[in-house]
Amino acid sequence: MDLIAVLLEAAYAYMGAGIGAGVAAIGAGIGIGKIGASALESMARQPESTGDIRANMIVAAALVEGAAFFGIIVCLLVVLLK
What is the model's pTM? Predict the structure, then answer.
């Protein structure tokens, strides 16, 4: 392989890792926003179940955030181990 091909391959890996980390963060933001909006709407409709809805919202948001962190870590590993 010549030098230009190797440099382009590395550049594509870094660019892909950056785009992947950004997409993971954007997706998590959208997901947590939808969870919060739905929880607030359901609390407004049924105020007596606020505690249960809040607990389920926190668990769901933590799962979404964990998946986003996993995606960002994978992208960082691509950059650091390349």
Answer: 0.80
